[in-house]
From TrEMBL:
Matching InterPro entries: NagB/RpiA_transferase-like, Ribose5P_isomerase_typA_subgr, Ribose5P_isomerase_type_A
Organism encoding this protein: Methanobacterium lacus (strain AL-21)
Active site: 104 (proton acceptor)
Catalytic activity line of the entry: aldehydo-D-ribose 5-phosphate = D-ribulose 5-phosphate
Full protein name: Ribose-5-phosphate isomerase A
UniProt xrefs under NCBIfam families: PRK00702.1 (NF001924), rpiA (TIGR00021)
Record's keyword terms, sorted: Isomerase
Length: 223
C-alpha cells in the first residue's frame, strides 16, 4: 500500500541523519514520515538536530517531533530531505504539489546534500505529465497567465478544496498549475522565473544528490 511505501522510504532517509546535523525538512506526505522518524530518533537515541522547515506544515510537524527549529540566517544546511511529484532519469524534478516549492527550492538548493524521497510512481522518463506549479504574486495573475499561454502552457489556477477561492501559499501568493511539454527542464525553469510577477516555479534542476525510491519490493537508492 502506498502509505506503507512512503513510510518505509521516509524512515530510511531519517537513518541517514547524523547527530549534530542541520536538516532541511521537506513538505508533503512522504516527508511527514521522515520528520516523524527523526522525532523517534531524538527520543530513542538522544539525537541532537536542528531543523529548517520548508513550510508551515513541516514547521508544525517538526515542533511535534521535538526538532529544534533554526533558520537559514543562523545555519547552513548539512542535508535536506524532500519529496517530489516527478523525477526524471537526470534527477530533474517537478515539485510544488503542496504549494511549498518556493521555500523548498531555497532550502533544498542550499544544502550540502539533497536527498529526494519518492514512491516508484513518481519516476518518469520525461517531466510534464504533472503540471508545473508556478507561484505568482496575486496582482500579476492575469498578466502571468497570458504569458504562460504565450509560452505554450495551459495554466489553471489552483483552487482551495471547497472551491470558494484560490489556494494561498505560505507567502500569500497564488499558484498556477501549468501543463507544458517539458523538453528542456533547465530552460523552462529559467524562462518561467523571468516572467514579472512569478515568484518561483516547481522545476528543480541540477541540485539532487540522491533519490530513494520506494516500491513494494523495498527501497532503492539512486545516485
Ligand atoms: C510540496 C512538494 C511535495 O514534496 C510533493 O508534492 C510530494 O508530496 P508527497 O510526498 O505528498 O507525494 O513538492 O510542495
Amino acid at each position: 500500500m502506498i502509505t506503507e511505501i512512503k513510510r518505509k522510504v521516509g524512515y530510511l532517509a531519517a537513518e541517514q541523519i547524523k547527530d549534530g546535523d542541520v536538516v532541511g525538512l521537506g513538505t508533503g506526505s512522504t516527508t511527514h514520515f521522515f520528520i516523524e522518524k527523526l522525532g523517534k530518533r531524538i527520543v530513542d537515541e538522544e539525537l541532537k538536530l536542528l531543523g529548517i522547515p520548508t513550510s508551515y506544515q513541516s514547521f508544525f510537524l517538526a515542533k511535534d517531533a521535538r526538532i529544534q527549529i533554526t533558520t537559514l540566517e543562523e545555519h547552513d544546511v548539512d542535508i535536506a530531505v524532500d519529496g517530489a511529484d516527478e523525477v526524471d532519469p537526470k534527477f530533474n524534478l517537478i515539485k510544488g504539489g503542496g504549494a511549498a516549492h518556493t521555500l523548498e527550492k531555497i532550502v533544498d538548493s542550499s544544502a550540502s546534500k539533497f536527498v529526494v524521497i519518492v514512491d516508484g510512481s513518481k519516476m518518469v522518463d520525461k517531466l510534464g505529465n504533472f503540471p508545473v506549479p508556478v507561484e505568482v504574486i496575486p496582482q500579476a495573475s492575469r498578466t502571468v497567465r497570458d504569458q504562460l499561454i504565450k509560452m505554450g502552457g495551459s495554466p489553471t489556477m489552483r483552487m482551495a478544496e471547497r472551491k470558494d477561492g484560490p489556494v494561498v501559499t505560505d507567502n500569500g501568493n497564488f499558484i498556477y498549475d501549468v501543463k507544458f511539454s517539458v523538453d528542456n527542464p533547465k530552460l523552462l525553469e529559467v524562462e518561467l522565473n523571468a516572467l514579472p510577477g512569478v515568484v518561483e516555479n516547481g522545476i528543480f534542476t541540477d541540485i539532487v544528490d540522491e533519490v530513494l525510491v520506494g516500491t513494494e519490493k523495498g527501497v532503492e537508492t539512486l545516485k
